[in-house]
Amino acid sequence: MSSPPATIDLRGYLEGLPGVDQVGAEARAAALGTRSIKKEAKVWAIDTAISMVDLTTLEGADTPGKVKAMCSKALHPDPTDLSTPSVAAVCVYGDLVETARSVVGDRIHVAAVATAFPSGRASLDVKLMDTKEAVAAGADEIDMVIDRGAFLSGDYAKVAREIEAVKQACGSAHLKVILETGELKTLDNVKRASYLAMRSGADFIKTSTGKVTPAATLPVTLVMLEAVRDYYSQTGIRIGVKAAGGIRTSKDAIKYLVLVNETVGEEWLTPDYFRFGASTLLNDLLLQRQKMLTGHYSGPDYVTID
User: Fold this and answer.
1) pLDDT (tens digit, 9 = 90+) per residue, 262-274?
2) Quick check: is 13 in a domain?
3) Where are the beta strands (DSSP E) in 146-193?
4) What is the CATH number of the domain that holds 126?
């Protein structure tokens, strides 16, 4: 199957998508969030969630030392238990990509935020340079932000052109397109932005920068998962989803895994198609993993403070 023709009326296509039943989406997300899982499944879920984490530091005060320490943790989240999986990727600003790559080598992915993250307010030339420099430094994943102002004013063509141009600038690197759903206001807009990103070249669609509240929520992620499911049915192209911002506990992460399984199926229960963007989630996953395996929690120094 092929993707929607490039010559379609973009506005007509996006605004012609079936509307989202917000009450229904919120109710379904809430119901799935109450599902309980058995102990054996919980152990698997915690390890799966660890393997899906993009361990992230995106602060103005980031230093090479902080990034190196994070990268070491990403490779060996629990040095006392080498059966603990590595995370999927580390995510940093573009100027720290080379530092991250020097630590992780080719063992995990290095993602860089680009395109004037988190605002997206820059010229296309600047955004493309931002992307190319990160890729040249060793990033094999780029997390770009859409121009929410253009999207909300109905200039879908501008958003599409920028995504297409950044995708080309990525070369072989995968492109994650951040919708910043907290600024899109409605689930209908989340659905439209998801389809716009997918048909413009996104390999992943991502909820948030983590700099805007609300960030990831279960109803928003449900709408995005339904979009990638339906897009796959229409085109045969499988797009990933990244939930980022505000996911801090194992209990939260498991809710998202249930949502993924029940909405798009087990084919998406892999780091290739689902990620968590987080800085503190990993600590709780490690604590809960140890509790499941040993029957007790470690002391407060068991995990590093991020």
Assistant:
1) 999 999 999 999 9
2) no
3) 174-178
4) 3.20.20.70
